[in-house]
Specification:
Low-confidence stretches: 104-116, 267-271
CATH topology of the largest domain: Cytidine Deaminase, domain 2
Oligomer: single chain
Order of helices and strands: EEEEHEEHHEHHEEHEHEHEEE
CATH architecture of the largest domain: 3-Layer(aba) Sandwich
Number of helices: 8
Largest sheet: 6 strands, mixed
Radius of gyration: 19 Å
Strand order of the largest sheet: 9-8-10-11-12-13
Distance between the termini: 42 Å
Structural class: alpha/beta
Amino acid sequence: MRSLRPHERQYRRAGRAGSGPRMLAEETPVALSFNGVTQAVMMATPSDLEDFAVGFALNEGLVADASDIEQLEVVEVEDGVDLQIRVSDEIGERLAKRRRAMAGPVGCGLCGVESIAEAVKPRRAVDSDFKLAADDIARAMAELTKVQPMNAESGAVHAAGFWTPGSGLVFAREDVGRHNALDKLAGALARSDVDAGEGAVLLTSRVSLEMIQKTAAIGAPIVLAISAPTALAVRTAQDANVTLVAVVRDEDHEIFTHPRRIAHGEIADVA
C-alpha cells in the first residue's frame, strides 16, 4: 500500500497565490489480530507493518518475547490492513480473555487496564550503565532528520530512531502516529537482536507518558526528543531509570532525569 499520496491544493507564499500537488501521508486502519481475534485497530502509516506488529505486541505486553510470534502475515482488506499474528494456543487464549474483558463502553481510555495506577506505571525499570557524550546528542538528532523521506515530502509524519556511538543511526521508522513510529522501532530492534541497552531512542515528537513506557519496555536507557516532555513523563522516566533529554535544538538540550548517563567531555569508558 502507498504511504504517500499527492493531493491538489491552492497556496499562498510570499504574497503570491498558486496551486499544485502536495504529498500527504496516508493514514490507514490497521488491525492486529492474534489467532484470529482482533486485539486493537490503530490508525497507522502502511509501511514497516511487520515491525509495527512485533513492536506493538511487545510494548503492550501481549507477548513476552518476539519469539512468541510463530507466524506473521500482512493481509490487505477492503478498508485497511489486517496483521494476522499466530501465537501459541496458551497465549492466544489469554489474549482472547483479555479482549473479552475489554468489551465495554466505547471511548473508555483505560479499557483492559484494572486501575489508574496500572495505567501510569512503567512496565519495568531499565538496567543499563550506558553513557552518551553530550556532543553526540546533536549529532544523533541531526542524523535522524536526514532519514525521514515520508516527512520530507508530507511534513506530517513522526519518526523514531535508535542511535549508538559505534554505529550511528541503526534504525529509523516513520508513521503519522508517534506511538506507532516507536512501536515500529521496537519491532525492528527485536527482530534484529540489537541490544537496546547500548544506545538511545530518538523522537521527533513531544514526550508523553506512553513514549517513556514504550522506551522502558524496549530497554533503552536514554531517550532524546525534539519537543518537551509532560510532567508525568518526567516522573515516569525517573521511576523507570530512563535518562530523558528533551528540547534538543542543535547543540542545546535539557536533561530532566538521570543526568549521570550524559557525559560532558570525552567518555573514557562506555559501559
